[in-house]
Amino acid sequence: MNLHTLKLKIDGIDVECTEGSTILTAAKAIGINIPTLCYLDGLTPYGGCRLCIVEVSGTSKLFPACATPVASGMEVTTQSPKLYEYRKMVLETLLAERTHICAVCVANDHCELQALANQHGIDHVSYERNWSTNKIDSTHDSLVIDPNRCILCTRCIRVCDELEGVHTLDLKFRGKNADVIMDQDEPWVKACSCTSCRKCAKVCPVGAIYVEGENIETTKIPDVAAFIVERRKRLK
Amino acid sequence: MNPNQKIRVATVWLSGCSGCHMSFLDQDERLIDLAKKITLVYSPFADVKEFPKDVAITLIEGAVANEEQKELLKTIRSRTAILVSLGDCAVTGNVVALRNGLPHTDQAVLERAYKDPAVLNAQIPDQVPKLLTHARPLHEIIKVDHYIPGCPPNADLINYILTELLAGRTPTMEGHSKYG
Predict the structure, then answer these.
(1) CB of A66 closer than 8 Å to CB of A36
(2) Does B91 touch chain A (CB under 8 A)?
(3) Which of A13, A46, A79 is the last residue of a domain?
(4) In this complex, do A123 and B140 lie within 8 Å of one another by their Cβ atoms?
(5) What is the tens place of the pLDDT at every residue in A171-230?
């Protein structure tokens, strides 16, 4: 394969990377950390949460770093007061959208949303909160899904489809009515394509999918996606 | 202000578990220094019936869950210079707001509390303040100046915010925040 090398600037630093890389991977290569939530190493970028937005010179539009390919001569800014405010807004709207009550959540202190809220100095949610009443599905032997804690990052759906290869999980409806479903929107126990591999629980950034009775620290291994991808490369 | 004059401080307990006030007490020996600077004019720790006027700083624990608390909160706001939400129930609604997702939430909790467990003569009391349909964080009802999140909030964080406010400075939550 003959890939061109592109030159660009990220936060004033010259970067060289191969064509097809994303802004996020190019930034990571030079040690610049852009906050992410729906993005997960090893899975196809989704660009849904908009936390990794960056500024690109020459346009006022903001781009999701995880899903934007680099271009030659691009000048990218990853940290600015404007971006910080937008990221705070993203986090606050996520916290307001459903019933996120840390004190009664299995993922309290092990939650990526909570950690990001802390990093961004969020001490309260300024929007009126929407108290969601979606049904919890605990029909599966060990896995539980509480849609009220779900942020619709689709990591579970992608890991189920791309790595486990069964595509049990998917999304129904749109906007605030969207929800993660199993097979043909059935109770989890009836979703016969599910292999109970638990990867969905391992990559869930919040407490929406968890293993009943298991310590959340034991369950959560989001790096599992990148690990599997790396292993499969070696098998080829 | 006269430096020898003590600063008038109040703490209030709305719908919460009192854990935030426990955390306040967890400031331990720092309370002695605090006592030299402040007068506690209203608090669960002090037996005062009516919320006094001209309070400099008020820390409020708990969500707003009934009509009485809503009225009290408005009175407090009109008589306080700096109002602080203390702990997750005041900041987010927290456990108190868990009922918000239920249909007819106020009636549902009353029935669960007074009717379901009763063996004999089950009745819902009507002499107590009326529940609001939704338990609310303070800032959805009145203006809040500062937030101390946490369930319960850390004693060091409470001490930091109080120290800054008493010194006339504006505390910043950057690096201190512990959401949820």
Answers:
(1) yes
(2) yes
(3) A79
(4) no
(5) 999 988 999 999 999 999 999 999 999 999 999 999 999 999 999 999 999 999 999 999
Do residue B173 and residue A123 have CB atoms under 8 angstroms apart?
Answer: yes
Q: Do A92 and A197 share a domain, yes or no? A: yes
**CATH number for the domain harbouring residue B38:** 3.40.50.700
Between chains, do B179 and A103 touch, taking CB under 8 Å as contact?
no
Greatest CA span in chain B, whole angstroms? 61
Distance between CA atoms of B84 and A45, rounded to whole angstroms?
41
As a residue count, chain A comes to 236
Q: What is the pTM of this model?
A: 0.93
Q: What is the pLDDT of residues A63-82, one digit of tens each?
A: 999 999 999 999 999 999 99
- A73 and A93 belong to one structural domain: no
Domain count, chain B: 1
In a domain, B63, yes or no: yes
Q: In chain A, how many domains are there?
A: 2
| Domain membership of residue B27 as a residue range | 7-99+133-166
Q: How far is CA B102 from CA A125, A139, A180, B88, B112, in A?
A: 21, 21, 21, 20, 12
| B108 vs A contacts (CB less than 8 Å) | none
Longest Cα separation, chain A: 54
Q: What is the ipTM of this complex?
A: 0.89
Is B177 part of a structural domain of the chain? no
**Chain A: residue nearest B92 by CA?**
A124
